[in-house]
Write a structure and sequence with these properties.
The chain has 119 residues and is an alpha/beta fold. It has a single domain, classed as 2-Layer Sandwich (Nucleotidyltransferase, domain 5). Helix content is 27%, strand content 34%. It contains three helices and five strands; from the N terminus they run βββαβαβα. Strands 3-2-1-4-5 form a five-stranded mixed sheet, sandwiched between helices. Strand 1 and strand 2 form a beta hairpin.
Length: 119
C-alpha cells in the first residue's frame, strides 16, 4: 500500500497547542514469519487520540529517537508511556509520566489494529 500512495493525496495537519500532551507506545506484528517482527512506534494526542507521528523499525533506542525527532515541532510538554527503558532514558523526567492510566487511548488503538490485521 505504501508503494501506491501519492504524496499529493496525503493530507498533513500540524497543530501546536499550548499544552500538547502525547501518548507514546510501540507494538509489533509480523509478515509471514514471527522471525521477522515489524515494530510500529507512534504517538497520539492525549486528548483527541489523533495520530501525531509514527515510524517503523526495530525495538531499539535509535528508532525511538527518530520518533522523538519527528515530534519536535509539536512542542509536546507531557509524554505518557509504559515503562520501557528507552522512554525513561531519553525523555526529561519532568515531562514524562509512566503508567497505564494515561496510555489507554494508544493501547486501544493497538488492539484495534491487531484485530483488523487478523481479518
Amino acid at each position: 500500500m505504501l508503494n501506491h500512495l501519492n504524496s499529493q493525496e496525503v493530507l498533513v495537519e500540524i497543530q501546536k497547542a499550548e499544552d500538547q500532551e502525547a501518548e507514546l507506545d510501540e507494538m509489533w506484528s509480523y509478515v509471514q514469519s514471527k522471525k521477522h517482527p515489524r515494530w510500529l512506534w507512534h504517538a497520539i494526542d492525549h486528548y483527541t487520540g489523533k495520530v501525531l507521528a509514527y515510524t517503523f523499525g526495530d525495538h531499539k533506542d535509535e528508532v525511538f529517537l527518530k520518533l522523538r525527532e519527528i515530534l519536535e515541532p509539536f512542542g509536546i510538554t507531557r509524554f505518557y508511556t509504559d515503562d520501557w527503558g528507552a522512554y525513561e532514558c531519553h525523555l526529561p523526567p519532568e515531562q514524562h509520566t509512566v503508567g497505564k492510566a494515561n496510555t489507554q487511548k494508544i493501547e486501544r488503538k493497538h488492539l484495534t489494529l491487531r484485530t483488523r490485521i487478523k481479518r
